[in-house]
Every structure is written in structure tokens, then in C-alpha cells.
């Protein structure tokens, strides 16, 4: 029986946008010693952010690295897939999505606004009302404000209505932004690269709720999913399930 354990990154292996800590590394070390068991990550972030958080020297723990939900995918360090949102949507629709998002964000009254409101990635577009160049403190301030005032939830409702014909999905994965990608390009996208090779696929994520970016893979019949609240919770689950 071959088993794959897939992890979300933010809020599951690391605290949101922060670096992996020692207890998690020690847990991964114990896990990879189990026979017929491989590890993988699937995150909304791009490879650059995953490197910052997990540190390249720890990449060897993971047989699979799925960045941007697997739109950019690596197996044993080799690139096995790269799919572009430009090819799927076309330039006119991309412009419409960006213009509509910028127009909406320009009307928002939020505590502060900084820079990089749109981050264009390979397989998705990240929309960020506060601006990705905000400080850690400004990030937390926006996150609290958003929890109270539902800034991102309302923006998702608006975009779903305005851009209905584009067949896009708007997903809230982290603390300050929304990931936009064609429907179906959620985290289940990565399963096509592993489903035939494993008898069991476990998934651990902190956002397995409707609208959260772990939801689709969390309810997919190909995975056995566990909803965690933070990295310590992930460790507790792993210790129990794999007896390590
Ligand atoms: O991995 C979860 C999310 O992490 C970041 O979100 P935020 O900056 O809003 O906390 C982004 O990289 C996002 O794309 C990703 O889904």
C-alpha cells in the first residue's frame, strides 16, 4: 500500500507567511522514515514564497512540490507541469479581470493601502486590497479588519457577479488576498499527477470550508482530509495517525 501525505503550507506546515519551525521539521523527519510513504505540498503561493517559508534545504522531504495549486509542479525536483493562465483566459479577459478588480479595490475604505494590489503569477492572479508590499503589522491589521468587515468576502461576491461569464473561481487562501483562477484550477488540480500512484492520499489543510482554498481538495473523494487549526495541531494529528 503506497501512501502520499499532502500538506497545505500557510496555517498548516507554517504560521501564515512565516518560516517553518523546528518541531515541524522533526515531525517530517520521522514521517519520511515510514516505508511506502511520500510527502508533498500543495499551496496557492508561487515557488518563490514556498522557498522563503519552507527553506530550500528542507525541500528534500517532499517528493512533490505543487506551487499555485499544481499549475507549476515538481516531482523529485524535476518540473513536471507548467500551465499558464494567459493561455486559458486570453489577454482580453485578463485585462477585464484586472481592470474590474482595480476599480473595485480603488473604492474600498480600509485602514491602509500600500503597493502591489495585483500579483500576476503563472497559473493564477492574486488580488490584494491592502497591497502585498504591506508590513507584517499592516498585514495583521488588515486581517483583523477583514474578519470584522468581510472586505474579501464582499469583493468575491462582486467579482462573481461582474465576471460571471469568465467562469473563474475566487478563493480566499491566506490573510490579505484572493486567488483568481479558472474554475477547476483549485488544489484538486494537483491530484491528476499522483492519483494513479498511491492507494491512500491524505491531505492536511486549515481552510477546508466553503470559500477557503483547501475546500475542494478537502471534500474530494480521492483524499482523506484533516482540517487543522495551526502547525501544532498538524503535528498532533500526524503523531496520532501515523503513530510517530
Ligand atoms: O498559501 C495560502 C495563500 O498565501 C498567500 O496569501 P496571503 O498573502 O493573503 O496571506 C498568497 O500567496 C495566496 O496566493 C495563497 O493562496
What does this structure look like?
The protein contains 8 helices and 11 strands. By secondary structure, it is an alpha/beta fold. The strands form 2 sheets. The protein has a 7-stranded mixed β-sheet. The protein has a 4-stranded antiparallel β-sheet with strand order 6-7-9-8. It starts with a strand and ends with a helix. The model has no long low-confidence stretch (mean pLDDT 97). It binds 1-O-phosphono-alpha-D-mannopyranose. 1-O-phosphono-alpha-D-mannopyranose is lined by residues 9-10, 16-17, 43-45, 49, 126, 173-177, 179, 213.
Q: How many beta-strand runs?
A: 11
Briefly note the structural class of the backbone: alpha/beta
Overall, the morphology is globular
Radius of gyration: 18 Å
For the sheet with most strands, the description reads:
7 strands, mixed
Q: How are the strands of the biggest sheet laid out side by side?
A: 5-4-3-2-1-10-11
- Could you give the order of the helices and strands? EHEHEEEHHEEHHEEEHEH
Percent strand equals 15-25%
Spatial separation of the terminal alpha carbons: 18 Å
Helix content: 25-40%
The total count of helices amounts to: 8
Mean pLDDT: 97
Low-confidence stretches: none
Ions, cofactors, ligands: which are bound? 1-O-phosphono-alpha-D-mannopyranose
